[in-house]
Amino acid sequence: MRFKVVIGDVKQFDGDAIIVSIFEEEPLQSAAAEVDAALEGAISALRESGEITGKLNEVTVLYTLGKLPAQRVAVVGLGKREELELDRIRQAAAVSSQRLRKAKARRLASVVHGAGLGSIEPEQAAQAVVEGTLLGLYEFRTYKTEDEEDHSEVEELVLIEREKTKQAALERGVEVGQITAEATNLVRDLVNTPANDLTPTKLAQRAQEIAATVGLECEVLGREQMAELGLNLLLGVAQGSAEEPQFIILRYRGGPEDEPALGLVGKAITFDSGGLSLKSGESMESMKDDMAGGAAILGAMQAIAKLHLPLNVTALIPATENLPSGTAQRPGDIRRALNGKTVEILSTDAEGRLILADALAYAEQMGLAPIIDLATLTGSCFVALGNVCCGGFSPDEKLLDRLVAVGRQAGEKIWPLPLFEEYREQIKSDNADLKNIGGKGGGACTAAKFLQEFVGEDTPWVHLDIAGVVMRDKAQHYYPKGATGFGVRTLVNYAISQAKRVRG
Ligand code: BES
Ligand code: MN
Ligand code: ZN
Fold first, then answer.
1. CB distance 436 to ligand 1 below 6 Å
2. Atom 3 of ligand 1: nearest residue by CA position
């Protein structure tokens, strides 16, 4: 899909449809008012009859019947003006473009909802419109043999703005929005792809392809190299599967050579059966999504490279299946992690923390800082927070606050959860330094506490437990049913803010 910014009058657009927005409980303004006048009061009439209210995400399509060059006008509600925030702009862009796609419109123009209103910068607003549109129009059709009869695609969105002074900012916003949303949709594709087609090897191949396309360094370690390094916990999880595990390392160098790289670590269990601690059939159904953390890291790296951000970033993605077999690890096995600590594996289904332990210790060895990890780590995080927000853990309150803030901008909510010392008691083992399950209660916290054992005390680190937010069972505004691509936009925003911070 193409995007462009045009300075001019939205009424002059001669494509299939134009999108204007209105607020709840106030008179029509700017573009909506002008379009209303051109349509001889058609919008205000519907408004008076109560059919159009301006409520958030309400979309009404009107035919222009020759009164304007474009055939249709979509009027989308933004809700109350004082409640406007970036995420509402994203949502409104999504629902209006979805509605117009249904009407077979291909070439759309839109005003930049909210640009310059309150604290919303034109650049951010343009970014949100583009993100909402691309995210909202996403469909996973890889395995659909036949096109749906009425299938139609939007080809172009033109953002129209009257003021020339805003052009450069809007263009930058469009670029950032397109890069971020495309990266998010890439992640959605990876997460939606079934485990038979997305093995660790295939994921590594995709990483190599992406790296070659956008200019990242990519190194992939196989079983032997992992054994040489001592990534024993990862190898333990992998030993039940016939598929070779892959440790994917991506490097982006945009900053000075001597500056420590931001470390991104993502869990990539391409299928989690639980191993010998086998899951029930029902809870196994969705476990192709257990690589969503790793996929989000890969998507973020693609976006960071395309944006040429001036900072260094290294991504570590441990990838393996977790399957039961005659060679699988057993409950009770004890293995030594890369950082020397021994772990008693009491449940082979608590495998995420095992592969992350080695990856975090490796990130630490590489001197990465800060380190941010994303993992579909615990069902208990889903139980606690649902699909509304992910859990965020960090001993560094300021760093976590920053992530929460950039996440909010991105429309991805992070809720802080504790790493209290008491949780450590729950993961002490009788037979080894640690055990990989923390017993009843506080499952997300004991898992995070376990990870903390593998990060240096002085290394700033944040763990995001994204188990609840990577899949949705219902479509809603810019979320389709299925994979959400959660994490990409937060990480990209964080990298942008980090680059600004260091280089002003
Ligand atoms: N991949 C799962 C976590 C998960 C569960 C993600 C549900 C999404 C939805 C993880 O590997 C796991 O199995 N965790 C166990 C840990 C337990 C054995 C301590 C869990 O949460 O049940
Ligand atoms: Mn598991
Ligand atoms: Zn898992």
1. no
2. 378
